[in-house]
Design goal:
CATH class: Alpha Beta
Helix content: 10-25%
Largest sheet: 6 strands, antiparallel
Number of helices: 2
GO molecular function: acyl-CoA hydrolase activity
Number of domains: 1
Structural class: alpha+beta
CATH superfamily: Hotdog Thioesterase
Oligomer: single chain
Keywords: Hydrolase
Strand order of the largest sheet: 1-2-4-5-6-3
Shape: globular
Organism: Veillonella tobetsuensis
Distance between the termini: 24 Å
Order of helices and strands: HEEHEEEE
Pfam families: 4HBT
Protein name: Thioesterase domain-containing protein
Radius of gyration: 14 Å
Number of strands: 6
């Protein structure tokens, strides 16, 4: 089982040349002890999503890996339903990509903002 499977990340797709989205289906697995979404799960979702999206934008002999992840958790959310990410590619360089994701609940309330820098490395490194 991969972390993508464990976190129940789904529906990852580019929605434009510099945008993408994905969904994380939430369960008690994603909860901290009080039943709210664990911030670490949100960070992992952002890093995974950025890598999956960047890998669709680069050459086949390259691979995107997470280099830096920062987040601001703006509103608590119970670990149930879906966390929906809408992302913008802020920088598409030769050796790095920078993504910013707005993470929403199903009522489109902003839960977190996550920024991820991906290093673009040779696949056979």
């Amino acid at each position: 089982m991969t972390m993508i499977d464990a976190l129940q990340i789904d529906c990852v797709e580019l929605t434009g040349p510099t945008s993408g989205e994905g969904v994380m289906h939430l369960t008690s697995y994603h909860a901290q002890p009080q039943g709210y979404l664990n911030g670490g799960a949100t960070l992992a979702f952002g890093e995974i999503l950025s890598g999956l999206l960047s890998n669709q934008l680069i050459e086949s002999n390259q691979f995107a890996v997470g280099q830096s992840v920062t987040a601001s958790h703006l509103r608590p959310m119970k670990a149930e339903g879906n966390l929906i990410a809408e992302g913008q590619l802020l920088l598409k360089g030769k050796t790095s990509h920078v993504w910013r994701f707005d993470m929403y609940d199903e009522s489109h309330r902003l839960i977190s903002q996550v920024t991820v820098t991906c290093a673009i490395v040779p696949k056979n490194r």
